[in-house]
Write a structure and sequence with these properties.
By secondary structure, the protein is mostly helical. The protein has one domain. Helix content is about 80%, strand content about 0%. The mean pLDDT is about 85.
Length: about 110
C-alpha cells in the first residue's frame, strides 16, 4: 500500500468515526472539540499559504514568483519548529515532511 492510499484511508476512517461518534457526544464536548479543531486547521492553512500559493503560480507558469514563495515558505519552516510540525498537516497526502515537499516543488519550478 502506498503512502497516499494509506493516508487517504486514514482520513476516511477518521471522518466515518467522527460521523458516528458525534451524535453520541454531549453538546458541550462536540462544541469543545470543534472550538479546538477549527482554529488549529485554520492556523495550519495559514502557515502553508505560501506553499499553496507557489503551487498555484506553478500551474500558471509563473516560475520566478513561485520560487520566491517557496523560498519564503522554507525560511519560515526553518525558523520556527512549531510551523514545521504544523505544516505537515496541510501540505499534502504524499509526505509528512513539509520541507521536503517544498524542495520537491522548487525542483519542479526550476525544471
Amino acid at each position: 500500500m502506498t503512502r497516499p492510499v494509506r493516508n487517504r484511508l486514514l482520513v476516511a476512517a477518521f471522518m466515518v468515526a467522527a460521523f458516528f461518534a458525534a451524535p453520541r457526544l454531549p453538546n458541550a464536548a462536540l462544541w469543545g472539540a470543534t472550538a479546538l479543531t477549527v482554529p488549529f486547521v485554520a492556523l495550519a492553512l495559514w502557515v502553508t499559504s505560501p506553499f499553496h500559493k507557489a503551487r498555484t503560480l506553478l500551474r500558471k507558469k509563473q516560475f520566478d514568483e513561485a520560487a520566491t514563495e517557496l523560498a519564503a515558505f522554507e525560511t519560515s519552516l526553518t525558523q520556527a519548529g512549531w510551523k514545521r510540525a504544523l505544516a505537515a498537516l496541510a501540505v499534502g497526502l504524499y509526505t509528512s515532511n513539509a520541507l521536503a515537499a517544498s524542495r520537491n516543488t522548487l525542483g519542479a519550478v526550476r525544471l
